[in-house]
Design goal:
Strand content: over 45%
Helix content: under 10%
Shape: globular
Number of strands: 27
Strand order of the largest sheet: 1-2-27-26-25
Largest sheet: 5 strands, antiparallel
Number of helices: 0
Distance between the termini: 33 Å
Radius of gyration: 20 Å
Length: 332
């Protein structure tokens, strides 16, 4: 079955902090070979799964095209790895990191099953393999570690979701201290079982030259976007905004957000769905968290979000919708 739509545009006025930031955004439906099933970013490039086959999402000469690509290569997971986990590849001292030691001791199932990770493994470029194993009161309720140099010392830290069986989720920062990887800091646990958070992006969101961590606290029930910054060997909450989401309960699509300088001020912003997932919200954090734009979608967002580059101005934002269609959101 082939899905085809007349290419139409819906124009919206952006929500702005001042008149100088005024902009217009539009939503464009893209003809796809079949129903959209997933969107992923592979080696920095957007890919679309339509009807079980993979296509690149490219933008050139003002047009979106979907050239067919081979199926994504599958690598054999390391022994003991989380079955549905993904390997994070680093460019600094950490070569690879992944979640391991599957356990059923936490019965939440927010990521599609009730198997989570009991440990984090870190392979460094000097050939060593480090294991960070949690106690029985917690699991890593995540699929892929995130690598970032949070303290500016040239060495990567690891950002991962840690969930306590009785107190719910926290965001944990793992780093090397005295030759051993350990949890350096955590956000306070949400406070009750089966209460989860999902990281949304790591970037310098406030323009101070240091990476910040954006997350959505309880994206299915509360939907508060929070910004956390590493300072004084601790995580500090430096901003928040209500009414967002970046995950659908029971799915493995954790990347329903994207980072880029969408308003052209030289500082990275964040795009993610509204709490109802019927709008795409673009948020800036300087001087405080505020909405740059709120763009209505023809149906609810259900896939990861990917950036598509190839023209002047900010990248296009690609997302799959509940009606099986693909749309891109672009700034005029």
């Amino acid at each position: 079955m082939r899905f085809a739509w007349f290419v139409g545009f819906i124009v919206f006025a952006s929500s702005v902090a001042g008149a100088s930031q005024a902009a217009e955004w539009r939503v464009q439906r893209i003809d796809t070979p079949a129903r959209v099933m997933a969107i992923e970013t592979v080696d920095g490039k957007a890919r679309l799964n339509a009807g079980g086959l993979w296509y690149a999402i490219t933008f050139a000469d003002g047009k979106i095209t979907l050239p067919f690509v081979d199926a994504q290569a599958k690598t054999e997971p390391p022994h003991g790895a989380l079955p549905d986990g993904r390997i994070a590849l680093g460019q600094r001292d950490i070569a690879r990191a992944w979640l391991a030691e599957p356990t059923a001791r936490y019965d939440h199932g927010i990521l599609g099953d009730k198997i989570e990770a009991g440990s984090l493994l870190i392979a460094t470029r000097n050939g060593r393999l480090h294991t960070l194993r949690l106690k029985d009161d917690a699991v890593f309720e995540d699929l892929e570690p995130r690598l970032a140099d949070l303290d500016g010392d040239g060495h990567d830290e690891i950002v991962v979701v840690k969930s306590y069986l009785k107190r719910g989720s926290s965001l944990a920062v793992v780093g090397l201290r005295n030759g051993k990887y350990e949890i350096l800091a955590e956000t306070p646990p949400i406070g009750r079982p089966h209460a989860w958070l999902n990281p949304a992006g790591i970037a310098d969101f406030n323009g101070d030259g240091k990476p910040d961590i954006a997350l959505v606290r309880m994206p299915h029930a509360v939907g508060t976007l929070e910004l956390w910054t590493w300072a004084d060997k601790r995580l500090h909450k430096t901003g928040e905004l209500a009414g967002t989401s970046n995950h659908i309960a029971g799915t493995r699509a954790l990347a329903m957000a994207a980072t880029a300088d969408f308003d052209g001020d030289g500082i990275v912003d964040l795009a993610l769905p509204s709490f109802e997932r019927d709008r795409l919200r673009i948020v800036a954090f300087k001087p405080t968290a505020h909405e740059i734009a709120s763009v209505a979608l023809p149906a609810k967002a259900v896939t990861n979000i990917a950036l598509v580059t190839g023209g002047a101005g900010p990248p296009l934002i690609a997302v799959g919708l509940s009606d099986g269609s693909l749309v891109v959101v672009r700034k005029d």
